Structure formats: C-alpha cells, structure tokens
What does this fold into?
Amino acid sequence: MSADLTIGRVAEAAGCKVQTVRYYEQIGMIPAPPRTSGNQRIYDESAVHRLTFIRHARELGFPLQAIRDLISLSDHPDQSCAAADGIAKAQLGEVNRRIQSLIALRGELEHMIEQCKGGKVKDCRVIEVLSDHSLCETDAHDAAAPMAHPPSAG
Amino acid sequence: MSADLTIGRVAEAAGCKVQTVRYYEQIGMIPAPPRTSGNQRIYDESAVHRLTFIRHARELGFPLQAIRDLISLSDHPDQSCAAADGIAKAQLGEVNRRIQSLIALRGELEHMIEQCKGGKVKDCRVIEVLSDHSLCETDAHDAAAPMAHPPSAG
DNA sequence: CTTGAACCTATAGTTACTGTAGCTCTTATG
DNA sequence: CATAAGAGCTACAGTAACTATAGGTTCAAG
It folds into this structure.
C-alpha cells in the first residue's frame, strides 16, 4: 500500500473533483505533494485519507476554517482536547437546529407528495409551510447565520 | 395593515440583511417595489411574507432557483401540482441524507463533548469519525452533489 | 434647520468551489 | 519508435449567494 497515485486517482478515491484537490493544495488544506520529473503530482494513501476527512466534514456543514482547525488538532494528538471540544460545542447547536428544520420539512415534503397526486398547487402545504413563521424557532432578528457557507451535502 | 415599510423594516421583519433584500430584487427573486419621491423603496407586508418564505427555504437547503420555481408555482395556484411535486421529491432524498449525516455527527459531537474533558486529542472521536468511510452511505464515486450551495442555516 | 441614521448606487470581496483555454506529459497501440 | 488519446499542468474567469465598502442623498428627530 501507499502506492503512488495520480491526482485523478486520489480525487476519485476521496470522492471529489481533481480541481478541488488542487484548490485545497493552493489554500493549504492539504500539503503540496512531490512531483514526477514531468511536474505531475504524486500522492499516497494519506492524501486520500485527508481528502475524505475534509469531504465528510464539509458535507456535515463544517466551514473549511473549522476543518483546518480540526486537522491541525489531529496533527498534534498530544495537545489538550479543549480546542476540539470548543469546535464541537459550537457545531452542536447548529447541527440540532438544522436537524429540527429538516425533519419539519421532511414531514411536509412527504405530506405533499402523498396529497398532490393530480391536485392543485393551492392544496400544497410546502409553500404554506415555508411561509409560516411558526416553524421559526429562532427569532427573526438574529438571522445573520453564524455558520458560513455549508456545502452541498453529498 | 399593509402599512408602508422601509427596506430596513422589511429586512428586520423577514430576518435578513438590507443588502440581501436589494440583492433579491436585483436577481428578480422579489419584485421591484415602488419608490418615494426621494427614490427610496417602499414595501408592504407581502414583501415580508415573501422574504420570510425565501429565508426559510434557503435555511432548509433549497437553492434560489428551486425557490424561484416554488414562488412561481404559488403565484399560479390553479395549475397542476406536478411541478411542485417534482421539486418536493427531488428535495426529499437529499433532506433524508442530510438528516442521517447530521444525526450521526450529533452523536459524535455529544460523545466528544462528554469524553474530552481534560483529555487529549487522540481520544477524540470526531476526527476519527470524519475520516471514517463507514459513515459514508453514498459511494465515493458519485460525490458531485446534486444540490447546489445550501445556505448558512439561521 | 441641522445632524445623524438610514437610504441610495456601484463596485469589490468572500467562500468554496467549478469550468475553460492552451499547453505538456504519459501511456497504450500499431 | 511514433503517435494520438487522455490525463495532467497553470492561470484565470465564472458561479452562487451573499456581504462589505465608498461616496453620496434623503428623512425624521430635536
């Protein structure tokens, strides 16, 4: 194992695009790998591992900066867990809120798919639900979201 | 009701930024409102309603294009529900996947917060979990996510 | 009637990619 | 060994969905 891998191979193995791998290198999310004599990047399994880590974290809504922090923590496993704990706590409330919203939406989506067979839009509850303030747990005033750009969920 | 509202008022009522309201107007998500003699926008309650709708949908991961579709459906409530149904179905699988991932992460976050009191990073399971392929339901190969840019959750 | 907050337009910056152009390198096949 | 397809390279532009800033105007309170 740890065989030499091209960028295409790592990207495929990690489930991301080739450009994304290069982009992550550019912004320092992954280390720059060695190159062949012809200037092509060569990776080993550890790159797949790290990219998979990043992808999972992105899919779960961590911004790249938080993932960067997590990576730097995992690179120094003997330091205190407090920082990781802080990141986790900051994420937990957000995760819970998202789960609540998504579960509410799922119910409405299912309801709608069930009911709307041949019906008219005025009977659809999705639109109503999305307009409805009662689903709003958070106060309208503090809507400036703390979590930057969650990714597309894979 | 339907009192005249400034852009600041609607933004506050709908839970978004003033710039965001202007941006939505610019890209046609909301209609351009009338102006005062001094060129300032004047809204009524319907703008708050629509903006709230948009915010909810965005928080739940709908891309603006899908919301645009939903809005155009709700503007024509007598047409067939089939299109809304299609949008809902397309969204449902995605919603379910996100819920699964988030619940898995929540467990790990809680576990970590519980365990890591004064511990070391090497005992933290978040990092391990995020690196772990077993959490991956989707095949690594089809990672190009179908849902564009979910927003920051409020 | 002044002052300061809120408004206006226009433009640039942000995050996290994704796509394109125009080239070079590698590899399979004749 | 030649060659052509396919993968890689750099550099830069574009996308989504905002967010911030600059520099000016309008409105409402004192």
